[in-house]
# Entry
Amino acid sequence: MKPFRFFRFAYILALLLPLARYAGAEPDPGQISISVGRLLEQGHYTKHKLDDELSHQFLKNYLEALDYNHLFFTQGDVDKFTSKYASELDDDILLGNPNPAFEIYNIFQKRVEDRVAKIKGLLKQDFHFTGNRSIELNRQKSPWPKDETEADQLWHDRVEGEYLQEKLAEHPIDPPVKVLTRRYDQLLRNLHEQTREDILKTFLTTLALTYDPHSEYLSKSDLENFSINMRLSLVGIGAVLRSEDGYAKIMDLLPGGPAQTGGHLKVGDRITAVAQGDKEFVDAVGMKLDKVVEMIRGKKGTTVKLQIIPSHATDPSARKIIEIVRDEVKLKDAEAKAEIIESTNAGVTQRLGWITLPSFYAEMDRSGAPDAKSTSKDVSKLLTRLKQENVGGIVIDLRRNGGGSLDEAIKLTGLFIPDGHGPKPVVQEKDANGTTRASKALDETCAYEGPLLILTNRLSASASEIFAAALQDYGRAVIVGDQNTFGKGTVQTMIEIGRYIPFLGSDSTDAGALKLTIQKFYRIAGGSTQHRGVASDIRLPSLYDHPDIGESALKNPMPYDEVNPVPFEKITDHPLYIKELKTRSAARVASDPEFRYVMDDLSLLKKKIADNKISLNEKVRRAELSEAKLLKEKRTAAREKQKHSEQTVYLITLDNAEKPELELAKNDKKDAAKDAPKDVGKDAAADDDDEEEAGGKANVKAVDPIRVEALHILSDLIELSRAPKTASVAK
# Structure
């Protein structure tokens, strides 16, 4: 740590204050850096000083954030960066000097530009794909190439591998050279679209992640997206966009959104310009997608005009203007939803309930309002309908649920703990001072007391783990899934940076926000979920169940520890029969071909990860592809011969939960293929998978062995709970 740094900091800040008052609405990157650095030092759970040790790690992390596969920089570059910046970044942050972020990025951009020029030269050569050479699939743990010569060889092999990959494609769109040229042109385009705000965001997020994996700096647009995700609604036009060849292209239209109901905007249309009401159009060609999205969003009831190239236009100079009135768009796919699975066995009909919960959401800015969106209210509504339909038991599916609102996890737990079992403590929280307190579901009346199963996997994290752990500690539910959940046992708060720069004279969100780890949470039984997650009572084979997924696989995770348990009343009048359930499940899993497929695929996946290489020999690769295709055909043939029990599935949403008639789930309708729902998002960039889903894969009804087995386990639990109890006299 350099001497007198705080005084230098205070002096520089004093000089900046008068200038900032006249700086207008735009936040200064230096002031944002100062605020983020100080908040991390003083507010983070560890209270770790931003010192030389952390500065060295920060630099390493920033270089890897830019060049995660260790391909563009050489070891010589890294040595120069280390010599110049490693011991200075801590001072630079706290003195409001973000220039190292831009200087390093500029060199990175130059390295990428030079490399792409060389790649285009390589693509003019002939590749023969013979011999025994192979390439590394993942170089994140490999050293940077020691010099340009070694880098050239690495890239020669990499481009050769990409060329072979395209050559082996079963349904090629274009020749390999054209595909790869377009790919690296897009890489350059993405690089050149990065603004100073984007670069600063990467830099400061990397700083926050150096403290722990869940602290993060959010830009103004990130903060807006976070708010949208928590309240499950936005004001816009309801379109999914993706950047393609310099245009923002319409990939999907959200059902019920203004763009879809208006009927004028079509999937495939490309946006060339955007105008606000009667104002002039702003050219959007070549504009970063986030900026296009920002222009399209706006206040409810206002008008946005889009100039587009219609999807059916044969002449790219064709233009059309579409006027759309913005409105609130509900993100229905992220809401809680339920199903009733009805089956008949030996003349006896059984009904089971299934609740899918993608996240723990809540309208933070309207908390307490009667119509405010929240997980606990929505699930309570679904539970009411499931009970009316006399389901024998319920599964709550938390697979891939990454968490969300801590308060909602606490409230939701209270809905399943029978009244009369004390004050319902749910989770313990410990702050940086070592103070521990228990949070209780004080006002939640039990909404469901019947048989309950919680389904998790390694992607179930944070609030999901609080909920599952509490119900496990109470003995209220059977936990089924991967060996354990993700293992995120920390609590974050959102701090708007603008509140610490009051002289900006602008909205406090303009400077973004810091998501800061301030607490760790613990089970009411005393143990933490940090690193270890929540262990399943019954483990099922799953492709997600390997150690490369989870908290322990992240950089700089906080350690596991324990606190004293809090008093709580364990539920003993409704035993869970875990031992018997495990025995029955194990017998079914052992004879289930779908689980054998999963275990075979998991073994292959683990081997590929361990080998971390792929052959550049075309004959070898074609043989591997043929083997994989043959295996797929055998499985398809075997599945066609399998007989599945007949089920009728009814879908219950928040929109139809109070309607008298039950609605058949789409896959149970004759026109399921025609009407199968697609994955749709919001006015934002679409993932690469969205187009593939829209192309028809979503229409294929896949077998989910974990879902099938979870329902079997729930049926067993219902049966065992209804069995007559016997008593014996102890001798």
